[in-house]
Design a protein that fits this description.
This protein is of the alpha/beta class. The protein contains eight helices and ten strands. Strand 6 and strand 7 (118-127) form a beta hairpin. Helix 1 packs across helix 2 (67-84).
Length: 234
């Protein structure tokens, strides 16, 4: 399996089979995904002595996240899958971030910076070595999330790029309820996308590259501005 995640500034690709991670590439830098994703994929395939035709399933972080980043990642994976006529599997970016913290004893709370004091978020728990979604994917204000977590009154492990933006506020508002994942675990990792996708593949939950699409929790800024302009003209 080849998996990629381009939902944030991080570009990452991984190759995994059933019982081992063959290789993973993570670049957390400012180059655009259109510049760096294909070179990363070519490099990891070359290093693993594999060709695209050797890949049985292609996986990608399907959202939420950067609109442009998601489209580049999904388009790339669909193109590769089309070239060799293989299936595709999409995994939520938030699922992948939470899966970076296996068997965590706290409530896991990935937060992705969605700008304008909002975050993309869902909540997770590990119970008896099984990964459960407690609250489904949503976009909400950081204040709404803080109020919700305050009412739950339990330890929370925060992860994702929103930690860097909101850490001081979270500590101020939630105090000792806050824990923060190590920096290396806050980034998107294609290996987490790959492992979750392998679980889906074993259950037969694959998709066709012809119909696969990313999912967004809210409209893009361009769409919002267009709708606002249309309303003003009406």
């Amino acid at each position: 399996m080849l998996a990629v995640d381009t939902s944030s500034i991080v570009a990452t690709a991984a190759i995994m089979d059933d019982d081992r991670l063959i290789g993973e590439y993570i670049l957390n830098h400012k180059k655009t995904h259109s510049q760096k994703l294909m070179p990363i994929i070519k490099e990891i395939l070359h290093s693993a002595e594999l060709k695209v035709s050797d890949i049985d399933v292609f996986a990608v972080a399907s959202g939420p996240g950067s609109f442009t980043g998601l489209r580049i990642g999904v388009a790339t994976i669909k193109g590769l899958a089309h070239a060799v006529n293989k299936p595709v599997i999409g995994i939520s970016t938030l699922d992948g971030l939470a899966f970076n913290l296996p068997f965590c004893k706290y409530l896991i709370c990935p937060i992705m910076d969605a700008k304008r004091e909002q975050v993309y978020n869902s909540l997770y728990k590990w119970i008896d070595k099984t990964f459960y979604i407690v609250e489904n994917y949503r976009a909400l204000s950081i204040e709404q999330l803080i109020n919700e977590l305050r009412e739950k009154n339990e330890k929370v492990m925060f992860t994702g790029d929103g930690v860097r933006v909101f850490q001081d506020k979270l500590i101020s508002e939630l105090g000792e309820l806050c824990e923060f994942a190590p920096v290396s675990c806050r980034m998107q990792k294609a290996s987490s996308i790959a492992e979750l996708a392998l679980q889906k593949a074993h259950r037969g939950e694959t998709e066709s590259y012809l119909t696969f699409a990313p999912f967004y929790l809210r409209k893009s800024q361009a769409e919002r501005e267009y709708e606002k302009k249309c309303c003003e003209e009406c």
